[in-house]
Structures are given as C-alpha cells and as structure tokens.
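In this section we walk through a basic example: taking a raw amino acid sequence and producing a predicted 3D structure, encoded as discrete structure tokens. The instruction is simple. Fold the sequence below.
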Amino acid sequence: MQNIRNFSIIAHIDHGKSTLADRMLEYTGTVSQRDMQDQVLDDMDLEKERGITIKSHAIQMNYRHGGQDYVLNLIDTPGHVDFSYEVSRSIAACEGVILVVDATQGIQAQTISNLYLALENDLTIIPVMNKIDLDSAMPEEVADEIVDLLGCDREEILSCSAKTGVGVPEILEAIVNRIPAPHGDPSAPLQALVFDSVFNPFRGIISYFRIVNGTLRTGDWVKFVSTGKDYHADEVGVLRLSMEPRKEMRAGDVGYIISGIKSSKEVRVGDTITHVEQPCENAIEGFKSVKPMVFAGVYPVDTDDYEELRASIEKLQLNDASLTYEPESSLALGFGFRCGFLGLLHMEIVQERLTREFNMDVITTVPNVQYKVQLTNGNEIDVYNPSGMPEPNNIAEVYEPYIHAQIITKSDYIGPVIKLCMDKRGLLKNQTYLTTDRIEITFDLPLGEVVFDFYDKLKSISKGYASLDYYLNGFRPSKLVKLEILLNGDPVDALSTLTYVDNAYPIGRRMCEKLKELIPRQQFDVAIQAAIGSKIIARETVKAVRKDVTAKCYGGDITRKRKLLEKQKEGKKRMRQVGNVEVPQSAFLAVLKLD
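The resulting token sequence is shown next.
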C-alpha cells in the first residue's frame, strides 16, 4: 500500500488537463506509441469534437522512482462548471490533486471552485503551471496569483508544457514524494466506495470503486449497502487502457467489478460495497447528492418510442449520475420525461448523446427552473414547468431561485460585465481586484435569467476572458407570469415559459416573430399569438398559400371575380377548422436562441 498513489487533475476548462494526462501515460509507458492519440482518455466522439472532458476517467500507471515501483491511479476530471459533480466524485476517491493553471490566462473561476472542493476533502495540492512554452505566457504574474490563492512557497509551484512534455517527469516525482499513500486495513471487513458506473450491453453494469478497507477477490459474494442486494463478483480488476482482470484487490486500490447487474436502479454512485458474510459496520460517507439547476421536457418525436426513450435515459443516467428524470405528459407532444440538468451545456450534451448512442430522435422543450408558489389557502407547491402553474387568482406569492455568481474577468471589461448582470436583474455584492488587471465580481442573480444565454453573452463581451462559477443561494419573492404561445387559438404548451413580468412583452413579441419565420405556410392563415392569461400581447400571421382562382377571368364583370374569391375564402375557413399546424423541431430550438 505504501507504493500506491491516488490522485486527480483539476483545472478550469481548456487549461490542459487531458493533454497533461496524455504526457503522463506516454512517459510511464502505459500507452504504446501505436495506441497514442490526442486526449486518449476522452473516449467519446463528442469529447474529442468539442475539446472538452464530459466524464471523469480513471487509469492506472506504473512508475519507477528511486529503485522502487509505484502504482499511480489517475482520475482525469472535466473543467466546465456544468460537470462539477463529476469532479466531486473523482476527488472522493483520491488523496491528492494536481491543480493545473494556464500560464497565459491565470486563475479562473472554476480553478477556485475545484480547489475548494479539494480543500474540503483535506487533499494534498500540487500546483502546476501549464503552457509555459507559449509566447503569451506570464509565469511570474501567474505564480504570484497561485501563491496568493494557496499560500504556498514559490518553489512548490511546478512549471510544465503538457504539449511538449517539458516538466512532466518532475510532476511524477512530486506525486510520489508529496501525495500520501492511502490509509486502510487490508484485513478489516471490506469497504469500497463506488465512484462511477458504466453500462455494457454484453456484461451488464460495470462499477468503478476505490477500496478503503479490506480485500476483494474474484468469486466473492458482495452486497451493495444502500440497496441491500447481493451479487457474485464475476470479475474484478484494474483500469488500464482496457480493463485488466486481477485475482484480488486490496485496500487503497482503484478498480472495477462486474457482477452481472442488469438494472440501473441497483447501482448508486456513492454507495458502499461490502462482503455478505463479514459486512462492514457502517457505509462510507458518500458525496452530496446532486441538485439539478435547469429543467426541460424531453419527448420522443414518434410517440411509439416512449418506452425505448425510457430505457435509453436509464442507461444514460448510469454514465451520467447528475441527470434526473420523471415521466410527464404534454398536450402537444404526448408522453415524455421532465429531466433535470446541471446547466445548458449539460442539457445539450445529453440530447446529443441520446441521438448518437441510442439512436433516439427527441424534442426538448424550453428549459426552465424550479419555482416555489405560495397559494392563497396557505399551501406551498413546487412548480417545474409552466403547465403546473396555478391560476393567478390562487397565487399569493411566487418565489424564484437565486444564485451567488463569481465572475473573474480582466478589468478592461468590468463595465460591460456589470451592465450584463444588471440587465439580468442582478444585485452587485462585491468586487475584489486579484491583481492590477484582474477583478472578481460577485453578483446575486435569478437563476431563470442565467439559464438561457448568460454564459455565451459573458464570453462574447469579455472576448473569452471572463469565467463564471455559481452556487444556489435560496429563494426570493418575484413577479412572474406565465407566457403562452397560441397557434390558431390553441396553446402550444411546449413553448410556454414562466418569465419576469417586465420581460414578458419583448419576449412574447420576439417569439412570435421567430415562429413566423419557422412555421411553414399552410393552405390557411395561421395566427401566432403570445398571451398572458386571456390578454394577447403580440401577434403575427403566417399568410395562406393561395391559388390564383381569378386567372381564368379575362374581362367581364367584377362580380365574377368576387364570386370566385368568396368561394375560395369559404373553403379556407372550412380548412382552418380541420387543419392543424405542425411545429417543426427547429422552432423549439430557435426559441432558446432568441437573440
């Protein structure tokens, strides 16, 4: 056990975590030159295309130092704020972290929030400054920022270039010398923490664990503490580039277990695995359960695919424990699910994965957040979607969720950033200069305003320099109204939104204009209206496609033309009563990107 080191790499998005992991795997010979590729741990096509890590990945390396052989268990983590839950799970399985900071950009919001996660778990932190080979690197200034943040000595900060491999041997040495070996008793009753699981169509569910105490052998009878169900350990082993079976795993090891579990409900991330004959007295303190921030309805395009969509979301939830879902139905779209996501990027990734990995065509409704409604009879209810909003005369007060947002940006962009937050009904709490040209601004913002396009706008006005981190900060009273979109007088519940009363008119007008562009012309006029209750606040009309019925009239009396036009008008009227308007998928998506 003295020769095992468990660590993860944490950083802000695009600071070079995955590239550093690639160099470590190369240097320790874990991946041969033939198998080497960029972002070797990011095995999803989506991750490679977008250049981001979505899932944390574990891999074991062998490293020889000072005449001794060491086993290094690396868990690579995502950097985007939407995937911070993955980071918390990885940190729970480690004794130390490598904190990577980009030498050209310095410390950013997610760097700080991931650092606090590591500090809460009492982990050893090794600060590393990456990208020192770039012309725009500012090693002195960034080193000062790291010293201010961590309170460490300058000598403790390692410099490297993950792209060229400079400085990687020193990082591996620091891992062995600074990160403590895992504690645990191999002879005690088995206690293993499940920190991830994946679904394999041939072998069932594969759980990834970290053994805290005890020993696990192939063929043991094990049970999961929270569900109480027992299984036969068909195969246990370590995670290298592919899975490698082992006869036994001891305290401090990180590995996987295959026990033929078929149902996704039987494995929970954060659960404890123990032996059936000699169980441990208590479960390991798991990590906090995740709280979704954004809710949206996910519906199959073809209503017959409902059961297939349920199975797909269940399997996807295994790979992505931060996704929550419950069944719901909609007048316009039939049966589907109300899903909870950590943010808009997370929602986009889930939608993309359903299409690619499970071949499901889905429609996603307008995302919204959870509101609390105080009724006039004294009861309080939670509202997750506009259709659940009670009638206005039954509502005493509506409470909306607020977030505490930390924005770090260059001081040149402070004006536009504050204006953006003020436009989103934000309250300025604090501003602190981290260095002469970098500032941290703290705002309280309504979560409903941040859900749509806040992050994109923040990046645009700061030319990509600003970074955002946030956490939920309670509920506050608000004036909200339900904005409905009517097509020919019928409400389309998938396009309804809950919005702040002052924003309702401009949003309603923009939605009507957008839908007029997207809804194809019919044989009859289509009226698109935005309404609050019974009051219409905006209207657009998609004109009918018309045949020129007067083309055959040449000369003659005007009454002949009028008779033909009146006949056509009657036909259009009848058609409108039986015709219904199909809303294309592009219209649902366009509403999200109104600007």
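Looking at the output, two observations stand out. The first strand starts at residue 4 and ends at 10. The chain has five domains: 4-178, 191-275, 294-363, 372-478, 483-592. In the next section we compare this with other chains.
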